[in-house]
Amino acid sequence: MLARKRCSSLPADAPLRPAADPLIREIVEMPDSPQQTTEVPRLTVEGACKRFSGALSAVYEDIGFAVEPGSFVSLIGPSGCGKSTLLKSVAGLLKPDRGEICWEHAATGECIRPEIGYIFQDATLLPWFSVRKNVEVPLRLRGLAPSLRDPVCREMLKKVWLDGFEDYYPKELSGGMKMRVSLARALTLNPQVMLLDEPFGALDAITRNEMNRLLIELWFRQRWTALFVTHSVNEAVMLSDRVLVMSARPGRIVEDVAIDLPHPRSEAVVSEPRYLNHVSHIRSLILASSGEALSPSQRGK
Ligand code: ADP
Ligand code: MG
User: Which residues line ligand 1 (CB under 6 A)?
Assistant: First the structure.
């Protein structure tokens, strides 16, 4: 067995996947089948802790979990428990003070820097750029010529049901459409991993359901690894293979809940007893762990 190289965060000098022509072929052909050519790494997090300088307590503490390649895992927990900080750590944007975070290459076991798509609650579009130009940003940054960018952009917009909107500007789009542009932009580099930080939190319930359907459709076809932060227990259970429930700050994982409902899931799943049991179990875990964070007098109120 090959030795596994360890590091406390993602290696800064890890090579990025190749740009230009091979990349573009990969993207245009990416299409509607699970990833095969690009190996999706396994995530391992062991004993990770993070405390910001000057803070009285850690943000997250003693975090350990693994995410198998191509699975969909949600993180849920009270506001301020460190979900966004943990996601940034997993992306390599922040370094944990202790512990190890590693994206293991499937064949060599070494820690690598995977191609990551990152989606925030805000669509973070450039208002002076058209939809097309916004989607093209990652490709421009990789130095791809316009003739190569254009087919990728059109393909990505089709995937998020936005073909025909290439020349619109962000101010002309609804919240759901903006979020779909943001998704298309993240997909342009054919990610192996998608990190999503409450991406649909600001949307109305109907649009949110639509976005969930789109996200799960994209994931089911392409099978990147998804780490999804949400406040919605229903959303977490609907989408995920596993839900990691975090306690109030300092965030710890209080339970790793396996969602034993087969994919693809239809809307009808919400009335199944197994679905309802998961929702009620996770709600009670969140309630119990939030209660622990309250002082005895607050708990008594
Ligand atoms: P969540 O996403 O679970 O709501 P966050 O990870 O955003 O929580 O934040 C957890 C805590 O860490 C908050 O109290 C927040 O103020 C603090 N925090 C987040 N980022 C920083 C930072 N860069 N510097 C100092 N404190 C931070
Ligand atoms: Mg957050």
Answer: 52, 55, 59, 79-85
